[in-house]
Specification:
With about 400 residues, this protein is α/β, with parallel strands linked by helices. It has one domain. The chain is built from twelve helices and 15 strands. The strands form four sheets. Strands 5-6-11-14-12-13 form a six-stranded mixed sheet, covered by helices on one side. Strands 4-3-2-1-15 form a five-stranded mixed sheet. The longest helix has 24 residues. The protein is globular and about 60 Å long.
Length: about 400
Amino acid sequence: MDRAAAALARARARPGPGELGRYRREGSRAYAVGDLQASAERIFDIFAHHGLLADDGALAPDVQLLAIGDYFDFGTRASGHVATARRDGYDVLTYLAAHAPEQVVLLAGNHDLARVMELAEATFDRFEGAALLAAELVALRDREPAAYRARLAEFSAAYPELPGPGLVHRDYSAFSEEQRALVQRLLVSGRMRLAATARLPSGERVLATHAGVTLREVAMLDLDEVAAAPLAAALERRLAQAVADAAGPWQRGEPHALSLAPLHVPGATGRLGPEDLPEGGGMLYHRPADPDRPGVDRPWEAAPGRPRRFHPCSLPTGVVQLAGHTGHPKCVEELARWSEPGMAEVPCGRRSLRVRGQDVRYQLGAARPEDGEAVLYLIDPSMHRAPSAASVELFELMPGSLG
């Protein structure tokens, strides 16, 4: 059995916490990997290609891995991948969590926390019924906009505990109650985190979150020092408090939504007012974009309290960050004014967004940060759409620096 197949077998067996833990710090290698929204087969082929796996399918003992969040929901119902995605997201996340915490650091993404936010009260049967209605509505959206708007109220009335039909049909289409229980366990045990720090091979400390931190979040955290380590510590404290508030109901089997507001706000449900949006916003949803690009939808992108886009100049100066959430094709589209000439719209796992004053540059590769810059490395490699395992890049970190 080759290493990728052995890893898949390990994942399918759903190992318990710590079952695969055997990290060896001496001579270690450290990598960050972008959003793992792909089939288990693709993910383990990528791991094998980069030499991350041992013969038995566990991560090699000298490998340290930072996973940047979003383990669920590759593909859509229309693509026919939902059954596979429902199983594989769970299996891959269980496999990673079975390694020692010092070997694998798991960050939470919007798709992961949606299981305990937007979908906190969902049952599988209710979700499947909502998905059928959502598919009808999505089909109407472009063909008969008036009919679509008229029937939105029907969806909210029938499924007030769920987010809007677009999220049910597309973003969270592979939901299961089993996934929600897994995310709850990982949060309560401290195994799933909101932020981490590491060092680049060149020595600079980097802040890792799913989608990056802007001056909006910095202001909410009320810090004395704006740097990677205090930002990570403040975000971890905020998550710990939110989990402490939810842990009791979860352990009693009661529905209870995790709240990270106002840092991150989930999508609205039918119970909320008409001013609310069906899609959430904030630090796990937002992505860098040019607010003056053609076709921009400003009310949607910059909704008060739940932004879904941010101007690159709102990145905190002097902080080097690492995030996923945004693939290269989306960046080429939304950062076109600041992109280097000839940047191909292909999956790419190592990209640099560099800001100095009003000067913004979006580049391929991991440019070394310079003094006075805000730097955001974007490492979502669009795994599910990548042409091959060999085309997916990992982001190298200084060995032993992840914490």
